[in-house]
């Protein structure tokens, strides 16, 4: 894994909403702070939006008198009944754990190239502009190039896949 910080520009987050007259307004416009899975990680992760329910409550600035940004307090990797929007800058050599979330994920490779590897070894190389519809499968992400990659994820809570009456739950394993 690379020992340098991401050369990619920070992620700007703009959130819109409504004023008390029902007119469109900007609630937030800022560079989103990066977070890291481990203290030694150099690959930033940007949480961009999180909802804890579906349909999402999109009028808290009116109904509660202030905008509630669920990103600040969400305790899980992905919302099991709402949505999660995030961005991950993968450094050269970076590998995610082998994992499954109980979500329907829409994935867009915005920069670079990454490899999606499924649990039985099937590998799909994805390049800039490629997309994936990930349907609760066990997988890992790999950056096998010498360049940084940026990948966006929209994760929607889903019903678990059932095989012979057994639900496939969220699971994380060490990548090999």
Automatic annotation (TrEMBL):
Which top-level group of life is the source organism from?
A: Eukaryota
Q: Where in the numbering of this chain does the Cupin type-2 domain appear?
A: 90-154
* Region Disordered: start-end pairs: 1-20
List the signal peptide residues: none
InterPro entries on file: Cupin_2, OryJ/VirC-like, RmlC-like_jellyroll, RmlC_Cupin_sf
Q: Which CDD domains match?
A: cupin_BLL6423-like (cd02231)
Q: What is this protein called?
A: Cupin type-2 domain-containing protein
Organism of origin? Mycena maculata
């Amino acid at each position: 894994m690379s020992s340098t910080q991401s050369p990619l520009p920070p992620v700007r987050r703009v959130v819109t909403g409504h004023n008390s007259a029902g007119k469109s307004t900007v609630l937030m416009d800022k560079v989103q702070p990066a977070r890291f899975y481990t203290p030694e990680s150099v690959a930033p992760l940007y949480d961009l939006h999180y909802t804890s329910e579906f349909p999402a409550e999109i009028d808290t600035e009116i109904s509660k008198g202030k905008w509630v940004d669920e990103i600040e307090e969400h305790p899980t990797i992905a919302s099991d009944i709402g949505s999660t929007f995030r961005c991950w800058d993968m450094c050269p050599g970076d590998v995610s754990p082998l994992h499954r979330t109980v979500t329907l994920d829409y994935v867009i490779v915005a920069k670079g190239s990454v490899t999606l590897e499924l649990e039985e070894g099937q590998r799909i190389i994805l390049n800039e502009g490629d997309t994936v519809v990930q349907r609760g499968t066990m997988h890992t992400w790999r950056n096998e190039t010498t360049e940084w990659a940026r990948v966006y994820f929209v994760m929607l809570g889903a019903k678990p896949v059932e095989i012979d009456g057994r639900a496939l739950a969220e699971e994380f394993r060490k990548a090999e």
